[in-house]
């Protein structure tokens, strides 16, 4: 009798759980029905296996349910916004300023909420202000930035010459990693790496693997973290953790070296890392007297360095990869860029940021690659920090919000011919650069990319310098490479080879 009562009670509890866990919140955005525990995870993964790209799965949902879609992925309520007005609200409203708090995002930061990218609140604001202050003091947004970018652009040109002399071609994917990182790392750590640095190349390769292991949502492991116990290998947990440990070890070695140099007074604190170490020491002394723990710590610094490391190598370098891909696929655009460059530099001096107003077509070409190539199709996800409303729907606190930049970039009602590659759409009738408010590769609002000026400057000078020295073509035995990328946190190009021929 008691057994049957317990069984009935258990059944009631189970049915109640299934009902509550599968029920949509009141006035939640429209979307597919979800299952208990896993939500829509299985359905999304099934479509992802077929469509290959998460942004295409989200776009398919938007076509069916509208510009604001609500679903659940494992533990998290998820909102997908796919039109300009909704995306702008998410990027600019304080209610959406948060970042996701999932397992993957904490794993990369020692189980805590550290760093600049996946944190929010007062500590994030304090850390962002500090980093921005010292990055500006070390050159970001100032004439020194042009000088630093110019040094690395010259290194790239020289490396391309050497590759052509030794191999007769260049394997494009990941070729620009070290040079791009050096521009930022000079400001962050006061040092640069040799473009053939094997240890760094290995580390950057690990970083690329990390970006391919998960997608923008953090992947299945983020949505069902218990999988790390059930299937640590198959879920990707073991590989993800191993890569993170190696990257953390590399960064800690750099911090220890800086601390040793500072203690021996080998140089002044003229870079971000040195300034941060001094701040840690200063705050530790203050904390002893006030009994208040400081938010400036070595763990915090390591995660900030990881954030900057990722931002300084992955996003900008993959954009450069896409740019070279589009230059060989659209030779008529490359010729127009060459013609404009010749009229400005005569191919007898290197271009700089000061030439930018006279080289609008190159800027337009870069913008069109970012729009058409969509190498960051979903941006960085946001989190609702309180219950709020969006387009008449109720968005519960802690909902994860994805901005479907891909769909906005491919909106035929605004762009007219979005699937056509046409840099001229970013030029006005006078041939000057014309920015579109619906084009936002660096985001908007309080979470706008803090390194935007550096990234834009690096892209422009690198591309202008390469075109100022070379005509880029494909090897005669190679088919035209596909414009379709490889999915991950960002999209990357398929491997291909290019020939860089010096101007006569």
From TrEMBL:
This is Cytochrome P450. One of its GO terms (molecular function) is heme binding. Keywords: Heme, Iron, Metal-binding, Monooxygenase, Oxidoreductase, Signal. Residues 1-22 form the signal peptide. One of its GO terms (biological process) is organic acid metabolic process. GO terms for cellular component: cytoplasm. CDD domains: CYP15A1-like. Belongs to the cytochrome P450 family. Heme binds at residue 449. It comes from Bemisia tabaci. Its cofactor is heme.
